Amino acid sequence: MTNENENSIYLGEESQPIDFPLGLIGLEEWRRFSLVSHPAGEPLRLLQALDDPRVSLIVTDPRQLVPGYQLSLSGADVQGLKYSGESGPLAGDVIELDVYCILSIQADPFYVTANLLGPLVINWQSGLGRQIVLSDSRYSPRFLVASASEEVETTDLAMSKEVV
Fold first, then answer.
1. Sign of the C-alpha dihedral computed for residues 145, 115, 124 and 87 taken in this order
2. Mean pLDDT of 61-82
3. Does the predicted TM-score (pTM) go above 0.85?
């Protein structure tokens, strides 16, 4: 288990613990996380597993990558998050919910991708998180964020920059 002060020496402040009762896709065994900020601030954060300190994921707000990024919560998502709002499209100004996407980094050749199809939604009031799968979406699970071979420009059509 990580110590709050242990990570903040190198990174930043840790959030309250976040429980993902269903785990994350492909990582179902890890369910308790903390969000660790970078000392310089946004846009990157570290989603640190509290169940196994060796496991951490780099995350960012998908709206930083794709202006106009939208997602919709199902009734099951609303219940699973214990969210007091309605199901349907999520407005960008919902205070108790934060949305993040997981970044993947490949070293050789260097590139960074974001999973825009499976965002993480965190309800700070309940301390619950959930990975939402946007089944009726054109967003990519491998949206190209950065590459050594080209300068990347974000567009509203997030699926146009998929890495295959």
1. positive
2. 93
3. no
